């Protein structure tokens, strides 16, 4: 990073954080009178009563709502298009994403397609997307019930074009949520393995954003704090899911990592993972990242040594004197979270698929490769995939 | 602070930071076609060519401008009212504050009074202000040429009602700048003693915001980084004003301290200083704060010991084990910046004035006393004034 860096900061989102804050939905000034609530196709938003809570608080606030409940863990374009059509028909004023990153990302894409004609891929940049400018979108409210994507604090929406096997992040200033409510009490029911996958997603947003060649003084501040908190509290949250303090620290770290995404960027580790889960949608994004991470970070060990040592400093709370301290600390953290032995083959990945992953990663999210500490060759990318494959 | 704190974050300002960034005025989308530029009654904005630069870049961007050039170092309400009347007559779309905190704060107040009827004091809360709600304001652009107030990153405008000797901070979500451009190259000409006064103002925004009972995890992050940077780089900038790296670090620390103001709050040290400069407008705000600071922070030494030690940690980069390490480090920093011997009497303050300062501080900015680590008695406040008086 330059000694006199030039950078910018613009996070227009109003963020409300804390246990019980979901109740603010009843009292905040909301951007309209009719909401479309986006939830996943799973059962948890109803089972744990979160959907009823949200609808109840909206009603108290004199806001009507309809629900779209089909979103998949790796959300797909056809659901975005279907929900946007319903949203127009029903005259909704704004979109609420309630759930994990998939539903909030979908809410962002739906907010765009409720106001713009044609296909969502007309607006996506990368892959076969046409990259047309977006000049309007409905307001978005994000209510995460997982701690991982940080999407509540950034403009990004990652959607898979299921016909083309392209999983691409899209975003602009209009896709920052207008309001995000992060209530750690809504995260208490997440099972240990998902807590770990999601928490590591946040960790990699921060760590990639810290080594990215577009890192800035403000993204560094958010990143190191997220890394510190996750190293300390993610193992606690994984091993004792009812520990509300740990849940809150992890949730805040995830939001901080979202701020990193909004001020720096993730790097090609994310491109490489997106290629895997574009082909194998059943592979959780966080699990894919965990599998790639040791080989990925090992590759850059000698390219940004000071930054690796700074990350190790805040993780171990001891002065580091070699870059591999970071990789050692990462390995320890995986072990404490019981994710040190992820087998990609268990999600159906075949070793012979790996070369086509290299191409997909370059084609769909090639831009992130330009933000790595140094450019990777195709051989190096394939090598990272190979080392990560079990 | 609570183990599971509830807090919010909302900084709608778009911040552009870096050497040379002033040129972005020529290319950014601006909020209208005619600007009112607010500068001080001094000569520096013209002498150093900053005003010409701004007008030139606006012209390139197809934006007309008029200039209001009367603002005093402690800006007064009658100038706000006069400029707002001109702004309405001339049909300006937005307000640019170019200069120190006084001009940017005035720009904010003018932006409010260009859209609201009656007197500015109808909208101010505190003192004899009527606290009426503000529902509209013109967009504001902040271009600081000093590093101290942080007003470019917060909603606050401190204006003196010269008839009533009330110096009060006012702000709401509409008085966040829409755009702030912080270009350290514009700060190179500030003389050493003003560099020190302004830099310590930023330091106290951060340190007060860190010990305030409304501090939050996000304000703490901004505050500790501002404190770290100022301890390290303010003496360099004071002693070598042409050192652009030090200027940039101090400027960024000042913006961070503004973010502290937007997410936590300053405390009664600021109320106490405002009372002094309301009576003696020739007293620079930073000099007043420096004079008060040792007695002020000494008063709370045993009330937030951990927080004092954390501040000492980031200042000295050594593990602190007693709260007075912070006060020692503060004293060292003053000495290195040649402001360890501020004599309030040199600005005309009389010792017999001190009791009425206690009353003015309570009357006009009493709210900040409720944010101190613990409530101060009037005797304690008077005692702080007495110990600070030379």
From TrEMBL, chains A, B:
Keywords: Oxidoreductase. Residues 195-389 form the Fe-containing alcohol dehydrogenase-like C-terminal domain. GO terms for molecular function: alcohol dehydrogenase (NAD+) activity; metal ion binding. Gene3D superfamilies: 3.40.50.1970, Dehydroquinate synthase-like - alpha domain. InterPro entries: ADH_Fe/GldA (IPR001670), ADH_Fe_C (IPR056798), Alcohol_dehydrogenase_Fe (IPR039697). Residues 12-184 form the Alcohol dehydrogenase iron-type/glycerol dehydrogenase GldA domain. The keyword Oxidoreductase applies. The keyword Oxidoreductase applies. Signal peptide: none annotated. It holds the Pfam family ADH_Fe_C. Belongs to the iron-containing alcohol dehydrogenase family. This is Iron-containing alcohol dehydrogenase. It comes from Phocaeicola coprocola.
